[in-house]
Every structure is written in structure tokens, then in C-alpha cells.
Amino acid sequence: xxxxxxxxxxxxxxxxxxxxxxxxxxxxxxxxxxxxxxxxxxxxxxxxxxxxxxxxxxxxxxxxxxxxxxxxxxxxxxxxxxxxxxxxxxxxxxxxxxxxxxxxxxxxxxxxxxxxxxxxxxxxxxxxxxxxxxxxxxxxxxxxxxxxxxxxxxxxxxxxxxxxxxxxxxxxxxxxxxxxxxxxxxxxxxxxxxxxxxxxxxxxxxxxxxxxxxxxxxxxxxxxxxxxxxxxxxxxxxxxxxxxxxxxxxxxxxxxxxxxxxxxxxxxxxxxxxxxxxxxxxxxxxxxxxxxxxxxxxxxxxxxxxxxxxxxxxxxxxxxxxxxxxxxxxxxxxxxxxxxxxxxxxxxxxxxxxxxxxxxxxxxxxxxxxxxxxxxxxxxxxxxxxxxxxxxxxxxxxxxxxxxxxxxxxxxxxxxxxxxxxxxxxxxxxxxxxxxxxxxxxxxxxxxxxxxxxxxxxxxxxxxxxxxxxxxxxxxxxxxxxxxxxxxxxxxxxxxxxxxxxxxxxxxxxxxxxxxxxxxxxxxxxxxxxxxxx
Length: 534
Fold this sequence. Notes:
The protein has 534 residues and is an alpha/beta fold. The protein contains 20 helices and 9 strands. It is 53% helix and 8% strand. Strands 1, 2, 3, 4, 5, 6, 7, 8 and 9 form a 9-stranded mixed beta sheet that branches. The protein is globular, with a radius of gyration of 24 Å.
């Protein structure tokens, strides 16, 4: 092992299940992720594996996403979403004589049919099984993560809250993948020193933090983030290389901003007449993205240029070659400076590839193919890297509090628009820890029926609090289009927590069943997740 690169992708969608309507815009977040990112990525990885092209990729599939992958209703609705889009594709092919985009619409139709067959015929709509197959062949490393993508450093004000997020996340991982995780993805790469001890306590071996979290600490090893550090408790800590990552995600200079790529914002769901879209949009008639986009990125003086897939593929080839060449030169320079077995770790949100950047999955495939041909470096998974370098020095690393969000700290969740939510979840976490401790100390005073009632109430309060702690709600509260929904969801979970608390010492009149059925996620939570943190 000498020169190494690792790509880590985080896939997360908040729990969105709205059976009260035929299809909702929020559920489309899930369906879009599956159709535009997960299925193309799986298709690409299986193609590489079948052709014998070596590659390694690391994925985090968040616990809420895994739960939705396994929900029978949502799996059926994903298929309905694909079929609904296929009907729109057929209409677009027929409308092509008017719009001039009939050929491109046919390409979309063929693509959706291919992905539908891959989803339904090859994997019987079981994406967890598909990812496990690639894990078992050694091409994927899968990590655990916090239950609802909660920001752990903020939750650690009440340590039991952070403990519950981690334990439920690990529990979901084990139920889906049949083994204990070694790596743990920190939501938003959000780290604080208290998180290290928590992860080691739960058996986690490694995690990833932002580069500035490792390099700005007094006395930090000058080789960070290109070697692994280790905390006092033995947690192995990888640093994300911001320079190589910015080649892709930078809004100003990143590859996806090239004018040859498809314009994400020019979607017929926003452009076509509302009457034409009525069947697709459903009862609400609320405009939304359909995935059918006919224009390339606009540049000054080039408004409304049509999207050209062949031109975009040439851009992919150029950018993949540039990325591989840059990583090779970067790793050669590190090695020349005496860094033994240097590692460049690039981490991204997975929906960049395929969803926001339509050509992103093709880019990853080109990167893996070019790297295999050139041999300047190799792609590794963090777990594999640790095993191959187990005799190598692991310098002390106690990263600073940090995240990859705006400002590099936690401002995205502590702003005037959303800071109220942090106080609300903290207050309820303190209550829940107290209730759990009191019940544990006085269980002998409860009869069987009373014990079952109290434990069920605590379980449901834990679930509602976990759902309220999702980082998505605070983040979306800062965005006009989604603010109302985010506030409604957060307040709903807090309100249901309070309703359960009222029932705790009273007879249940059916309200628990009502709350339990509303969000059937994590159905078998242990009652003692908020036991005293030591």
C-alpha cells in the first residue's frame, strides 16, 4: 500500500411518509433520490464489478433512509412514481414535434424503463439487498450513522440524547446488514470532543471529520489530514481533504458548473403549462421537479441552449481525467515529503451524483476506470486502509468542534430562524432522561400492566424526540420554500411527545395507537435508550 484515495458518500433523506395523500412533494424527495442517484449508482457499480474493473467506495445510508427502503408502502410508491414519470415521458415524446425535444424525451423514457427493470426485476425493489451484495463482494464499505441525522455535538448537552441517536443508528444498521459497523458517519461531519468517547463506548472504530477540525488544533500533526489520527479513547479519525473535494462541490469552480452539463433548475415541472402537468402533479397541483430537463447550464448570451448528452459526456471525460491526474500529483507530492502511505479522503453528499449533477454517476465511473488503467494510486475504503496500515503510527488527534456546514461550525442549526428547536429538544431530552431513571429505580412498584404501559410511553417519546432532532428541520427552516413544512414537522413531533407524556400516568384511550401508527419507524425501540450516560 502506498498512494491511496477514498471516496465517501453520505446518503440521507429525512423520514417522509404521508399516506394521507396519493403522493406528496416531500415523499418525492425519497423517490427522486432512488431514481436519480441510488439506482444509477448501483447500476454503475454492478457494471464495473461484472467487467472486473477494481474500485472501492464507502457509503453511509442513513437509518431513516434504510427504514424507508424497507417500508412496503413507500416501496410501492417509488414504483408508482417511476410509472407516473414514464407516462409523462410518453407524453413528452409525443409532444416532441411541438417542443423540439422528442429525441431527448425518448432517451429519458428509455432510461426510466431500464432503471425500473433494474429496481423491480433484478432486486425485487429491495435496495438494502443490492447494497449488501456489493458489500459482500468487497467493493463497498457501509457505515452506521445517527438515527435521524441529529447534530450530535448539539445533542450532547444532554448526553443521553446523543447516546440514543448513536444506539438507534447502530441498531438499525445491524438489523439491515447483519453485522456490527466499524465506521460511523457523523451527520454534517459535525464533531465535538465528547462525540469521540460516545462512539468508542458503542464499539465504533473510525469516523470522518472536516479538515479544519484536525489541522487548526494547537500541536496538530503536520501530516493531517493525509494520515489517520487517533483519539485518547482509541477512535481512529480521518480528515476530509477540502481541496480535492472542492474540485467537485465548489459552487464557483466545481466541475458541475461547466456549461456543457444539464441545468438542474430547467425542469418541465416548472416550465410546462399547469394544465398539461395536472395528472402528474395530482390533487395539489403544486409544481415540482419531474427529472425531465432539456437545457444545459446557462451562460451569459447562451440562454436556452438545448442539453446535448454527447457534449456532456466529453466534459465528464475531461473532468474525470483532471481529477485523477490531480490526485496522482497530490499523492506523489505527499509521498515525496515523507508521508508514509498517504490517503486523500473525499467526502460528499451522495445526491450530488445523479440528482443535482446529472452526469455525476458517469463521472465516478470514469474516475474508477481511468484510475484502474493508470495505476498512479488506488482507491481504498477507510476500514481496509486501517487494516493494511495497522502497524503504522497513529498520532494523537483531538479534533476541534467543527462541521462541513456554512461557517464550518454549527451556525446552520443555531440561527435566529431555528435556534428555538434546539432548546425545545434539549428540554424534552432532560425530561426523558429523568423519566427513564425514575422508572428504572421504581420498577418493582409497577404491576405487569403498568410496566408495559410506562415502557411503551417511554419508547414512543424516544421515537418522537428522535424525529424532532433531525438536522433537516433546522436546516430547512432557513429556506423559504421548505420552512413551513419543516416547522410543521418539528412541532408535530414535539407535540406528540407532550401528548404521550400526559398519558404516561393516565389510562390510554387509544391515543397511543394513533401516535404510533402515524410514523411507523423504529418500531421495536428498547425502553432504556435514555439510561444514565457514564
